[in-house]
Amino acid sequence: xxxxxxxxxxxxxxxxxxxxxxxxxxxxxxxxxxxxxxxxxxxxxxxxxxxxxxxxxxxxxxxxxxxxxxxxxxxxxxxxxxxxxxxxxxxxxxxxxxxxxxxxxxxxxxxxxxxxxxxxxxxx
Length: 124
Hints:
This protein has strands at about 5, 10-15, 20-25, 35-40, 45-50, 60, 70-75, 80-85, 90-100, 115, 120-124. The protein has no helices and eleven strands. The radius of gyration is 13 Å and the shape is globular. Helices cover about 0% and strands about 50% of the residues. The strands form two sheets. Strands 2, 4, 5, 6, 9, 10 and 11 form a seven-stranded mixed β-sheet that branches. A four-stranded antiparallel β-sheet has the order 1-3-8-7, with no helix packed on it.
């Protein structure tokens, strides 16, 4: 089992930056693909970014490409999401998730473990 806890959310003005962290516990997830997802009120959960277990292969949704960066530190059992140039439409609850497999995919149902989420609010 892997437990995931997100942190770093908050309120920020448009154009600002936030860095989300997701710490894993229970067992090392160095062999797991990891992903960040978000869900805004009244909308379906969408994929934001994903990273393979090696950290060498990443995926970004078109809406965040060039603004967000996913990274991982396997020694710290942590995955990060650096969010720059934030827009009001980025407002959502952000979740991290882990797969039991190492290859990253953009499909939420491929992920087996989920955190509780952290709120990100971007004001205009």
